[in-house]
Specification:
Blueprint lengths: L6 E3 L2 E3 L14 H4 L9 H11 L11 H18 L6 E2 L2 E2 L9 H11 L1 E2 L5 E2 L2 H16 L2 H6 L1
Antiparallel strand pairs: 1-2, 3-4, 5-6
């Protein structure tokens, strides 16, 4: 009998169990991340670099004329980067309902993202990492003129 991965016992054939890798389906690498981003790995660093790079070659100047294009690009980046949970306020998407929120609403939502232990040291949470990536993307995508308007 030749060595093989199957064997026969009393006329029935058995096949040894083969471990099937678990594959996480995602439309982009940022959507596949489960849990905290690990920036000590190549994968984690590549995800951060892609997520925080400027949205366009030309920085957004804060004009109302370019707002629709800017929000469309940011919405797409949020989707690609897996930021879905941080782009919701009171159950509404910030890219389509941005006029409904006050600065106070945004501040309250931001405070929920960052947690501190009893010694006051920030605890790393996924929402905080995603929020920081989004803020870095915004800073890298807006001109000084735009940032000075805010």
């Amino acid at each position: 009998m030749s060595s093989s991965s199957t064997s026969t016992t009393a006329g029935t054939q058995t096949t040894p169990a083969v471990a099937t890798p678990t594959i996480t389906y995602a439309m982009s690498p940022g959507q596949a991340v489960q849990g905290i981003y690990d920036y000590s790995t190549n994968t984690g660093m590549k995800q951060r670099i892609e997520a925080t790079k400027p949205l366009d070659d030309k920085p957004y100047d804060g004009s109302s004329k370019g707002l629709s294009h800017f929000l469309s690009k940011l919405s797409h980046r949020a989707l690609d980067s897996g930021w879905g949970s941080i782009t919701k306020v009171q159950g509404h998407d910030i890219f389509t309902k941005y006029g409904l929120y006050t600065v106070q609403d945004a501040c309250i939502k931001a405070l929920v993202r960052f947690h501190f232990d009893s010694a006051g040291i920030r605890i790393t949470m996924w929402d905080a990492q995603a929020s920081w990536q989004m803020m870095s993307c915004l800073m890298n995508s807006c001109s000084a003129k735009c940032l000075n308007k805010v």
